[in-house]
Amino acid sequence: MSPVWQESYEAGIRPFTSPEPGEPVLSEAEAFRRAILPIRKFMADQIDLADNGDAIWMFLDYLRPPADSPRAATWVEPKSYDDVPLAALAPAYVLSELKVAFLIGFQIFLPFVIIDMVISSILISMGMMMLPPVMISLPFKLLLFVLMDGWFLTVGMLLTSVRPPL
User: Are the beta carbons of 158 and 104 closer than 8 angstroms?
Assistant: First the structure.
């Protein structure tokens, strides 16, 4: 995120808070518009990378005014992500990131569930119903996580999810 925040700062915040000599002073609205452009691009790219474009249209349908209202006459359907209002783009981005986080969590959780099921089946088949399966499966889960280099894989998945498009 550092390049995005740096670009946002240089485009809108720095010229607003401390303009260079000879540089025009920006209004608050213009500074916000310039500062939000890199963030909007990042959010749109992340939504595209996760293939969650439908979320934007879901929020746009919610923002669309009713057909019989005065605002309906001036409503223009967005043609690209640049035209999408921030009130639809930001929640669509959050929803997209929640979906990606859920997928990462599921990919981590699934092997642990399989280990629990195998250990439980083995203990039940041996007649050890009073022994909690967690006591046996926890060391196996930790061993699997360490042998698979779990932290490296987890951080790698997180970094891949926010990689800027090439």
Answer: yes
Structure token pair of residue 147? 């042998």
How many Å apart are CA 54 and CA 36, to the nearest integer? 22
What mean pLDDT comes out for the span 130-151?
87
Statement: residue 146 has pLDDT above 80: yes
Q: How far apart are CA 136 and CA 133, in angstroms?
A: 5
> What radius of gyration do the chain's Cα atoms show?
24
* The pair of three-digit structure tokens given for residue 148, joined into one six-digit string: 């698979």
Q: Quick check: helix, strand or coil at residue 152?
A: helix
Write down the mean pLDDT value for the chain: 88
CB atoms under 10 Å from CB of 4, counted, come to: 16
86-118: string of b/e by CB count within 10 Å (b at 16+)?
eebbbebbebbbeebeeebeeeeeeeeeebbee
Residue 157 clears pLDDT 90, i.e. is over it? no
Angle (CA) 38-163-9 rounded to 5° is 25
Tokens encoding 33: 């518009």
Chain center to CA of 93: 6
At 144 the pLDDT is: 85
Q: How many CB atoms lie within 10 A of CB 147?
A: 8
